[in-house]
Amino acid sequence: MFSRFPVISILAYAVVISITAMAFYGLIGFDQARLMPELLQDQYIQQILRFSLLQAAASAVLSVMLALPIARALHFMPELPARKAFLRFCLLCFVMPTLVLITGLVALLGRSGLMTGFMPNDWNLYGLNGILIAHLYLNMPLAVRVISQQLAHIPDTSWRLAQQLKLSRTQQFLKVEWPALKSSLLMLLGFVFVLCFNSFAVVLALGGGPGATTLEVAIFQALKYDFNLSEALTLSWLQFTIAGLIFALIAKLGKLNWLSADTHKQRWQPEFGQYSQRVHQGLYLLAWLLLALPIVALIPTLFKAQLKHLDFTLLFLACVRTIVIASTCALFATLLAWWLLIPIRQAQLRKNESGRIILQWLATHSLVAPAMVMSAGLYILLLPRVDLERWGWFWLILINTVLLLPFVIAQLKPRLLQYDQQYWRLSANLKLSGLGQLHTIWPFIRPAMLGSFVLALLLAMGDVAVFSIFGDNSWSTLPWLIYGYAGSYRMAEAALASLLLLALCTLLIVLFERKRLYEQ
Amino acid sequence: MSNSLSLSNIAAATAQGLVISQLEVYLEQYRLFYDLNIVEGECLAIQGRSGVGKTTLLQTIAGFERAKSGAIYWQGQNILQLAPHERPVSMLFQEHNLFEHLSVIKNLSLGFADVLPKEQLIKAAERLGVYGQLNKMPAELSGGQRQRIGLIRTLLRPEPIILLDEPFAELDSDTRQIAAEWTREVAQQQGKTLLVVTHQDEDVERLADRCLVLGD
């Protein structure tokens, strides 16, 4: 059964690897671009590298540290008002199109922002402040969801045993919660670090000068302004190597922990003390406020919109295109992830740890490959060979699909590995046919599949980076329209389009959560 | 794995029934060694203190643990190199015998390649007192009910070798007796070769033709 990888999986790996290889080949092949190791001695580059690492580390640590008490509050205080809505809101924040967030942050904390008066005199949104706030906004909610999910996996029996042994609340944290959370927290730190290390739109919009620039932005500047491909190539490799090493570490740490059998439903768990309850309630309220403010700040800007001049047909068509393109990418990403995961599952079953790490790295390496380089490299390679005006949409979908893979795989993998851990022996012993296997695995995996698809859909709906290279103004998507409005200082229209995009994302999340609850 | 043509190897390969020949299995650093014959249609009870390797023996026969050396012959054919799904084995695990996300009736219908012995399954469910549970989900069943559902499917599947790992552990004494008698009847009627791991002497008396105490 597991002696060979299926052909479809080999093809899937070939597609994913070829995209990156083609992108780098595109850069190398053009104008004799070469690696410039001497650049690493350059003080400007060293400064950028230092800042990239610093902001990523600070963003990761702060996101996870702040998420921990909020996730615990959500878990141990199920009576908190609007608890489910908050978890949905967290998902919305994580997938929020960066342009929407930036428009909201500027309206809130920019030079003439609603809250700027309450900030210190020397307050400046642009620079490390703004970058950290935006990264926290995008990643802390992800950490809240992951941690609360992990807490929910602690078997009921562990809590009962801890209570029966009369462990104090601190001992319960150390003996029950911490072992369940430890590996997830490490993985989260690494994951958020990589996301922030590769951050592009946030740093481009809120960064300023060499003191607040990341490698990804420096690559963009080398490509766009200096057209220095050798520099772009060298910086790309540097970013690829650092992020790749960290990512390999995550893959190694990403073990299947505390995934108990489904029979262990949580029906009993300890409660906080009175004082602790108040602190956690306060934190929960604060989290609601901080996450809602940038969206609320968009509303006053709306009133300045001149609705008479607004092209509603353009807005409607942009919505339709966004949904169609994003759905196609999400569908392909989910299918591709399924095929890529087959060999990873086989390696896990064979206890081939190094094989699993290598395969996982290959399947999800697009998380560390600079998105700008992927798009620009492919563009340079394809331009003389393909009619990109005609086939741009194809490459847009393909590249977005590959960029979505790490997120889809991260969603699907634990559930599939749990299935294998729990049922592989039974399934093999029952000698189920291919169709029989599908019949047994599908009901188990369906919620995770749906979740992965929706996550991919929401992420794809926010794409600007790939569209900026392969897209076309004649078939603008909603984020591209926002970018166009903001670029021509039509902030009210940008805010309106942003809220529309947010409303679409919210609708999808609500529909998805309803379906999930219905299936439970 | 040794391929030498020793007399004992030839004898094992030509013997009928289940022959476990010079089987060496390592769990971490711990070496387990098995060498035994089970006649076709025989019921062998396996006992021994915890950790002695009873479950490992069943898992190795079923193909879920790898042997370092030795052979497992069934009707003269070495099945050690076969994948789990290629072996003529039906096994009841200590736990995880039911897919939690499928109904009990769906779980009961799995593992029958050609024809589903519907009548036999229903009769067995009635006899073992779980007929009323068939339309429920596994999470709604008690440990003993789950065990009986798993037992029915394991026994009735069209495989000649049946491996039962503590099949009655969660049953009360009356149900235990009914289940053991039913197991014995089905195994005899259908000529199954049975290996049963149990800690209870009464199971041995009711069910087994012979008892093997591992570790002695």
Automatic annotation (TrEMBL), chain A:
Any one cellular-component term (Gene Ontology): plasma membrane
Localisation: Cell membrane
A family per Pfam: BPD_transp_1
ABC transmembrane type-1 domain location: 49-251, 319-512
Membrane protein topology class: Multi-pass membrane protein
Listed transmembrane segments: 7-28, 48-68, 89-111, 123-144, 185-206, 232-251, 283-303, 315-341, 362-381, 393-412, 448-471, 491-512
Any single biological process term in GO: transmembrane transport
Keyword entries, A-Z: Cell membrane, Membrane, Transmembrane, Transmembrane helix, Transport
Domain of life where this protein originates: Bacteria
Family to which the UniProt record says this protein belongs: Belongs to the binding-protein-dependent transport system permease family.
Protein name: Thiamine/thiamine pyrophosphate ABC transporter permease ThiP
Organism expressing this protein natively: Oceanospirillum multiglobuliferum
Automatic annotation (TrEMBL), chain B:
Domain ABC transporter: 5-216
Keyword Aminoacyl-tRNA synthetase belongs to the record: no
Superkingdom assignment: Bacteria
A Pfam match: ABC_tran
GO molecular function: ATP binding; ATP hydrolysis activity
Coiled-coil ranges (or none): none
Keywords (A to Z) from UniProt: ATP-binding, Cell inner membrane, Cell membrane, Membrane, Nucleotide-binding, Translocase, Transport
Transport as UniProt keyword: yes
InterPro entries: AAA+_ATPase, ABC_SmlMolc_Importer, ABC_transporter-like_ATP-bd, ABC_transporter-like_CS, P-loop_NTPase
Protein name per Swiss-Prot or TrEMBL: ABC transporter domain-containing protein
